[in-house]
Design goal:
Length: 218
């Protein structure tokens, strides 16, 4: 009888221990789930911004200025068209005004010229001087072109056009000489063979911020 009571007590103890182990295991599993639920998720990374497109290089002005025709002040059709569009002349009064925006190959928008007209009257003389500039940034013969200038006197044969550069006059002259130009020293002008009765001169001279190749007719 005593032996049976001992066995019954032992069995009850084993059942109790098993129940306690089961409860402990269940609580542990429940605790792990809570920690996982409360753990913050890593923030999503924003997609990296696309790289900006590469900037286009400077415009090659060879097709505009000509590769060699300017050596004797001859204008390519493209250059002659641009210079003409920079200024509009009234065929009745010969008075000048600023030209309209100009479309130039290689530029994504028309270029707008600037314009200046001065008038000076002395006695019987009525002198009307006109000057127009066009910012035309690009490369020509390896030089950095900054723009064009057209100047003339109304009702006169005296006129000139300049190609402006960012480099020094010495470098501009040396570079153009290597490309077949016959140019005198900086600041001097050389007579170019032209039609009878027409005087044409070419030269390189310093200007503010660089140099200019000038072709003058008079």
């Amino acid at each position: 009888m005593r032996r049976g009571a001992i066995l019954a007590a032992a069995a009850a103890l084993l059942v109790l221990l098993g129940g306690l182990l089961f409860l402990a295991q269940r609580q542990r599993s429940s605790g792990d789930g809570g920690e996982q639920a409360s753990r913050p998720r890593p923030a999503a990374q924003a997609p990296s911004a696309p790289e900006p497109p590469a900037r286009p290089g400077p415009v090659d002005l060879g097709a505009v200025l000509g590769l060699g025709s300017l050596a004797d002040c001859s204008q390519s059709p493209a250059l002659a068209s641009i210079l003409e569009q920079m200024v509009r002349i009234d065929p009745r009064t010969f008075e000048s005004r600023r030209g309209d925006p100009i479309s130039v190959r290689g530029y994504d928008r028309p270029l707008v010229p600037t314009f200046e007209r001065t008038r000076e009257i002395e006695g019987n003389s009525d002198i009307r001087a006109v000057s127009a500039d066009l910012d035309l940034a690009g490369r020509w013969h390896g030089l950095q072109v900054t723009g064009l200038t057209r100047s003339f006197y109304e009702e006169s044969d005296a006129s000139a056009f300049d190609i402006r550069f960012a480099e020094s006059p010495e470098r501009v002259r040396e570079t153009l000489v290597r490309h077949g130009f016959s140019l005198p020293s900086v600041g001097e002008f050389r007579q170019v063979d032209a039609e009878p009765g027409i005087s044409v001169e070419i030269g390189v001279a310093p200007i503010e911020g660089g140099a200019a190749l000038t072709c003058a007719t008079g």
